[in-house]
Design brief:
This is Nudix hydrolase 9-like isoform X4. It comes from Nicotiana tabacum. With about 300 residues, the chain is of the alpha+beta class. The chain has seven helices and twelve strands. The longest helix is centred in the middle third of the chain and has 27 residues.
Length: about 300
């Protein structure tokens, strides 16, 4: 399913994949392979600009770190012919790093990396496109948790976002593609990466909001949205928290990564609708995925 929605202020998003029924970890698998790595651009000056942009950013901020990230390379969605068969999605992931992300997706000339194509993966084959993650967290009193980003963050300072970040290759022992060529090693690493998709979003919620992991339900995968501006993809999950919103507000004051945000809001669906106009496109897409999930549940 692909859908493009225009937003005020140019924060458009595209829904690359929508799973309104929500998929459990057993319904989501990963194929991690260098076939899904970025393809360098034939324009050598464009390629050289990646280093130039990164070096300039490092001079401005010596704390920048070039960590590895999983690169989004597409998906296969099997709805199954048998009504009893559960739908299953297979995410196709390669490897990239933060330096290449800054030099391609976040470059002032990011559009020059795009290939004219209706196929999303061909269009973005020269961009870093690390797969981010985000969580729509619902409290026991039916509020949704939204953070206001700090003015010190690199992207969209002051904007409203859902808690999230990135699944991390280092968490499953991945530094490069080397050593995973044999079939049994491929299966093992694919399973570990798939588990990291779900483990990482719980980690992000715990670190950014302060809610303990045992207060959170197992995440369900609801889809992937992409910001049209600089083609930034994000996988979204839905999580229930068994704490009330006022309890979480108290925990937030001592959250490990609280410096990334200035305030936590616990809001109703209608409040969230109003706040969405000041969300980055990928997170507006996350809200759209959540609404499709709610509509699907109401229809059933």
């Amino acid at each position: 399913m692909e859908e493009k929605i225009s937003c005020d202020g140019g924060h458009e998003f595209k829904l690359l994949l929508s799973c309104p029924s929500g998929l459990s970890p057993s319904q989501v698998s990963v194929v991690f392979d260098e076939a899904y790595d970025r393809i360098p651009h034939s324009d050598s000056s464009l390629e050289h600009s990646i280093s130039e942009i990164w070096d300039a950013r490092v001079q401005q901020s010596s704390s920048l770190y070039n960590g590895t990230k999983f690169r989004y390379g597409g998906y296969n969605f099997d709805v199954g012919n048998d009504p009893k068969q559960q739908p299953h999605v297979s995410l196709q992931l390669g490897l990239t790093d933060y330096r290449t992300f800054v030099g391609t997706n976040l470059s002032p000339i990011w559009e020059r990396y795009l290939v004219p194509s209706e196929d999303d993966c061909i269009q973005c084959q020269h961009t870093s496109s690390p797969l981010g993650n985000g969580a729509v967290v619902e409290t026991s009193d039916k509020k949704i948790l939204v953070l206001q980003r700090s003015n010190k963050v690199g992207e969209f300072p002051g904007y409203f976002v859902f808690p999230g970040g990135h699944p991390e290759p280092q968490e499953v022992g991945i530094i490069s593609h080397e050593g995973f060529q044999e079939l049994n090693q491929c299966r093992t690493i694919n399973n570990k990466v798939s588990q990291e998709m779900f483990d990482s979003i719980v980690r992000e919620v715990v670190e950014e909001i302060g809610a303990p992991a045992d207060s959170l339900s197992s995440p369900i995968f609801i889809g992937i949205s992409r910001r049209v501006m600089n083609v930034r993809p994000t996988a979204f999950f839905f999580i229930k928290c068994n704490l009330q919103s006022d309890e979480i507000q108290q925990l937030y004051s001592s959250a490990q990564d609280g410096f990334e945000s200035t305030q936590l809001y616990a809001v109703s669906m209608s409040d969230l609708e109003n706040m969405a106009s000041k969300m980055p496109g990928c997170h507006r897409g996350g809200f759209a995925l959540y609404k499709l999930m709610v509509q699907g549940a109401n229809n059933n």
